[in-house]
Amino acid sequence: MKTFLLALAFPLVVTAQPAKNFKVEKLADGVYAVIRQDAVGFMVDANNVFIVNDNDVVVVDANGAPGITREVIAALKKITSKPVRYVINTHWHDDHIRGNNAYRDAYPCVEFIGQSTMRDYLPAQGATNRKNFLAGAPQFLQTLKQLLATGKSLTGGPLTDEERISMASDTLLAGYVLSDGANAEAILPTITVDDRLTLYRGNRVIDIRHLGSGHTSADLVVHLPNEGIVITGDLVVYPIPLVGNPQSHVAEWSPTLDKIIALKATTIVPGHGPVLHDDSYLKTLSEMFASISKQTKDAVARGETLEQARKSVNLSDFKQRLAGESPVRKLLFDNYVAGPSIGVAYSEAAKR
Questions:
Q1: Which of 87, 146, 205, 263 registers the highest number of CB atoms within 10 A of its CB?
Q2: What digits encode the pLDDT tens for the residues 6-32?
Q3: Residues 253, 215 contacting (CB under 8 angstroms)
């Protein structure tokens, strides 16, 4: 099968007209989610959360370029004039960090909180991954434009309406990353978290947790226990999770999700996708990653090669549950789940 997987370090970013492409949802007193409204596709930008306290604001995640984050800040200023004290980056991928510059410009005293490994990753492997992405992005953008012009899908057939909308969104997103987002500086965390950091603001508890690896080794979860809210970063992405090979950790992903489920939150803000109000989707993801890990481990024990394992590991039930009959979601599942997750799980099992 033809593969269009982009480097997962950069499943970016924002639209050519970013200002109107999100909505702000009030989740609780002083807590607001900024939810992206892009069509489901290969290119994404991060959701954000504002936690407005008595004297300051804590923000969860920036965006893939300063331009979109400036618009997010404008939305915040309509809610409050209080200063942003902390920006928590849930992990190191560009669509969650490149807008940090805009927060630093707007709020000079702001501090950036990230998992400890971010300070090593971003200047080293992160810089290499970003360079490779920016080198390949123009060709991907050109491919999308050509396919839209000729009415063909990424798999070669005629475009459906769903695919046309998705590819048009991807074209805008890819175009924007090559302009406003391309030169944005990567700001390193000024405060790092190994396992846990808790902020107290009056009666509000902001619990920043590294519950385990999954999407990356730097995944942070932000839990507001009094409000029953958990902000997951890309440990949870709807409707199709984003798996990277080699950056993701398939064997650990299910246990990490189970720890999030154990928090018993009634409101879940994923890294991408709509706000969720129960844990059913998280349970599906946990079941899927546990199955991938076990099936692949069994394949390695049988002496199968990676290519043999790709054929023997059966994900058809999960593909149906997550993608249904949507051609866009099916393609995303093949590229962002089946392909990389089996590769990661195979490497993990072969090392044991």
A1: 87
A2: 434 334 333 344 445 899 999 999 999
A3: yes
Q: State the Rg of the chain over Cα.
A: 19
Per the structure, the count of domains in the chain is 2
Helix then strand then coil, in percent of the chain rounded to 5, is: 40, 20, 40
Domain assignment of residue 113, yes or no:
yes
Strand blocks (E) in the chain: 22-28, 31-36, 48-52, 57-60, 84-88, 111-115, 191-193, 196-201, 204-209, 221-224, 229-237, 267-272
Instruction: Determine if the pTM surpasses 0.90.
Output: yes
Same domain assignment for residues 255 and 314: no
Note whether residue 71 is domain-resident.
yes
Residue 305, token pair as written in the block:
């090669």
User: What are the pLDDT digits (tens) for 112-151?
Assistant: 999 999 999 999 999 998 888 888 888 888 898 999 999 9
Return the percentage of the chain with pLDDT > 90, whole number: 82
Range of the domain at 323: 285-350
- Give the domain-ending residue among 279, 297, 314: 279
Residues 221, 346 within the same domain: no
Q: What average pLDDT score do residues 156-174 get?
A: 91
